[in-house]
């Protein structure tokens, strides 16, 4: 199954299907969830970092301007 | 051959803790962990973590202390004065322990290492702050591999925090049953439906639980998939921002207004404080346990004198309030913990020896039991003789307050039940405690009918 389809199946089972008990090897599911969502999470994280940098950049400039106005 | 080995330290093949013949605590590092240990020390990560107070400091010592031939090195970690367990923590203690673990993982990644486990038992509270105590939890980071401790982190930290926040803070007690963390499928079934709509909770709890069952027993080709470092940092950041945003809604509890709702006048309250201070001065204890401590007002009479004090209460709100004060005031000598004395922490885990019971972690030097005895004797029907013998087992000396039946607090307890407590009298109290303690001093608290006693345990019982 393609990764995107696997995510769709997992999400739909979370929302629509009744709960099931799990007795299992704890490693594989956690491993695969990270692999499946890795690119998406990395993308969001990169955007968040750029956004923070941008905010910092404007804050710096705005702060400097304010200081200059006081002078 | 592993004589002296600490009973909780057996899972990790990298090494274990033991108490040597000289009575000190050491950690044996096995040959299998040599490469990782050398990287931890030479990369600068150890110094960074120990200097920032995140990781317990240690010094290397003689190999002659080794317990077996697998040893590569013996280290002596700084001692943790009192071991507490996650089911004895309030919400913010577990939250701070979680955030510490994530901060360490981020730092480790900067130095080319990663945490191979994320157990909540790896964190202890020392001088008011969380401290990571497992020096052997670090391994070299393998590019392309997901975080091996992700599931454990979610089950040890995230799931209990969510269950406490969304259901009830008393559910921290689930960690007594599930000592390896609340299974994600259990947490997912307990949490309200709306948590499935929150993207972070959907991923870390609900999808995670589903993924566990979906891939149960299925072989996966690990080499075929790659997981970038940015993705790893994204997962850590997502967990961190999720946990940082979790707060406990304050709620009214039975005891929250205790000190403003008693029949104590301000004068009597001050007099009680003066007496406790005086008794503490007389005893000069090296450690204090305050039972039924509420928000720790009286515990602080000891801890403010730099006496290491554990402040136990059964109400999560009281422990939370006290811990928040510890953080705000940077208090070093007081540790607030959750403990129901009518059902205190038992020996738990493998062979019933992995986690020690409340009493096994004693005795303390001085026990304080102020405004407590009526709750044990009347609310919980414990005979005074049993209270006296139980207290004697966990302390050398005792500061205890007698609350007579005429007291409004006792009347309140008896208001809704039949008074079957003919034996609840000051005479009976004194004779019960005299079996185990010598009464050194007794003082009536002016402005009340209550009496404070200073007692010392009979030496024959020690």
Measured between the Cα atoms of the first and last residue of chain A, the distance is: 65 Å
- Using a beta-carbon cutoff below 8 angstroms, give the protein chain pair with the largest interface and the number of residues from each chain: A-B, 36 and 39 residues
Helix content of chain B: 25-40%
> If you compute it from the alpha carbons, what radius of gyration of chain B comes out, rounded to the nearest whole angstrom?
24 Å
* Multimer state: heterodimer
- Quantity of strands of chain A, as a count: 0
- What CATH first level of the largest domain in chain B would be assigned? Alpha Beta
Q: What share of the residues of chain B does DSSP label as strand, in percent? A: 15-25%
Strand order of the largest sheet of chain B: 11-10-9-12-13-15-14
Can you tell me the overall shape of chain B?
globular
Number of domains of chain B: 3
End-to-end CA span of chain B: 31 Å
Strand-pairing-aware structural class of chain B: alpha/beta
Proportion of strand residues of chain A? under 5%
Uncertain spans of chain A: 16-26, 66-71
Contiguous low-pLDDT stretches of chain B (5 residues minimum) are: none
| CATH fold-type name of the largest domain in chain B | Rossmann fold
Which structural traits does this protein have?
heterodimer; A: 71 residues; mainly alpha; 2 helices; disordered C terminus; B: 462 residues; alpha/beta; Rossmann fold; 7-stranded mixed beta sheet; 4-stranded antiparallel beta sheet; 15 helices
